[in-house]
Specification:
2 domains, 3-stranded mixed β-sheet, Cytochrome Bc1 Complex, Chain D, domain 2, alpha+beta, 12 helices
């Protein structure tokens, strides 16, 4: 899908400015920041099907546009990149359990709109699904489709399906797919499918935002798990995040491992989508993640604000996985 059609300009709320614990300006609003919780406007329509099969580099496979939009199919462009997919990942179970690999891609890489689940510890994966089921894990915008679908699937999936998905994604080595760029200005973003697209020469101040976008939009909407992303972040945010991560009262390495790549029971946070990391910090801070294992994270984020979350997310995204 080489073209996206007309996309709708992203709306950025006017911020209230204050000074954060990291010494940077932050924004606070009645709703979570739009840049981290992008959503399609009511009149958004995906490009129409031109009837042509879709292809991606280094793959002999082809899919039709309807196949790339089928929630019960995980397009498998690169079968050699992962083990054989279990049914719940490859095709799900109609009518309520969508294919895990549809949203999270066949190799679990996901995108800025959801989560990279490759390499997650089995016990952690299962626990998060249980938290979704029980309501202990929700989201700041419950009508936002990526998270609404995740919660719905978690409640509909049975224990065997959850275990199969957990073991499958755990067996895939995670890859760093994000390139972080500090900049004063960013190519003007638009929203297309719960994520940002940047095109054209017009630029605007980045402000206190992270603008994360696929390097190849066509491959991304065709659900190619090898797509890379560029995350534009404010100048100085990486250094600020590095300093925060090392503070004794935060000390990310204490739980997530020396290189922040995780342990047998704790997920890695290095090299992840900074948009995703920001959302998780925000949701811990505001009570949307309150499962049995959440207290250490909640204690860490309580004194922090959105500028701190942004800085931590920007720094973590620069690390190897």
């Amino acid at each position: 899908m080489a073209r996206l059609g007309a996309a709708v300009q992203a709306l950025v709320a006017l911020p209230i400015i204050f000074v954060s614990a990291a010494g940077a300006e932050a924004q606070t609003t009645d709703k979570p920041p739009f840049w981290a919780y992008t959503y399609n406007p009511p009149d958004f329509k995906p490009p129409s099907d031109d009837g042509q099969p879709r292809h991606v580099p280094d793959s002999t496979v082809s899919y039709t546009v309807p196949q790339t939009r089928d929630r019960f199919l995980a397009p498998d462009w690169h079968p050699g990149d992962h083990p054989a997919m279990p049914t719940v990942v490859a095709s799900g179970r109609a009518p309520d359990v969508y294919a895990c690999g549809f949203c999270h891609r066949a190799s679990g890489t996901g995108g800025p709109e959801n989560a990279d689940v490759a390499g997650l510890p089995v016990s952690y994966f299962i626990r998060q699904m249980q938290d979704y089921r029980s309501g202990k894990r929700t989201t700041a915008l419950p009508d936002r489709i990526p998270q609404a679908w995740m919660i719905s699937v978690a409640k509909a999936a049975n224990d065997d399906e959850i275990k199969a998905a957990a073991e499958y994604f755990s067996a895939i080595k995670p890859k760093k797919l994000v390139d972080v760029v500090e900049t004063e200005t960013v190519p003007k973003p638009t929203v297309a499918g719960w994520f940002f697209v940047t095109k054209g020469d017009e630029r605007q101040p980045i402000g206190m935002r992270i603008i994360e976008t696929p390097a190849d939009v066509g491959r991304f909407v065709n659900r190619d798990a090898r797509v890379r992303f560029t995350a534009y972040v404010p100048p100085g945010s990486v250094a600020a995040g590095r300093g925060l991560a090392a503070k004794p009262e935060i000390a990310c390495a204490g739980c997530h491992g020396e290189k922040l790549t995780g342990t047998d029971v704790v997920p890695g946070i290095a090299g992840r989508s900074p948009t995703y990391i920001f959302r998780q910090l925000y949701e811990y801070r505001h009570g949307f993640r309150a499962g049995p294992e959440s207290k250490p994270m909640i204690d860490v984020v309580k004194p922090l604000d959105e500028a701190d979350f942004l800085a931590l997310a920007a720094y973590l995204a620069t690390l190897d996985r």
